[in-house]
Design brief:
Length: about 130
């Protein structure tokens, strides 16, 4: 069973940076797309960024382009999300997610669908003003 474990959340101030890590286990991820989503208090969960496991193709929500960077650490087989220039709107629970079929996910992303099959439990990021 695929498991995703997030870490790296915490309390930071506006303008600060933070790095989140997702450790996937329990599967073979060559065909996977790995992503990060977030859910702010009182709001729906939203797509943040994604990266293909094998080719490193990246996707970003418009709201985070230029500030957040998703990457795969090929030595540790983990997924990182670097959050720069955070503001209070970045306060949310951040979830790692995965889908086993990158090609299907890519096609769906073209019409704004970012469905994932596997989810971590989340890590909380709080940004103070």
């Amino acid at each position: 069973q695929v498991q995703l474990t997030e870490s790296g959340g915490g309390l930071v101030k506006s303008g600060d940076s933070l790095s989140l890590t997702c450790v996937p286990s329990g599967g073979s991820f060559a065909s996977y797309i790995m992503g990060w989503f977030r859910q702010a208090p009182g709001k729906e969960r939203e797509f943040v960024a994604a990266v293909s496991w094998s080719g490193g193709v990246t996707y970003y929500a418009d709201s985070v382009k230029g500030r957040f960077t998703i990457s795969r650490d090929y030595t540790k087989d983990t997924i990182a999300l670097q959050l720069n220039n955070l503001n209070p709107d970045g306060t949310a629970a951040y979830y790692c997610a995965a889908h086993p079929n990158y090609s299907l996910w890519h096609a769906n992303s073209l019409v704004g669908r970012y469905d994932m099959d596997f989810w971590g439990k989340g890590t909380l990021v709080t940004v103070s003003a």
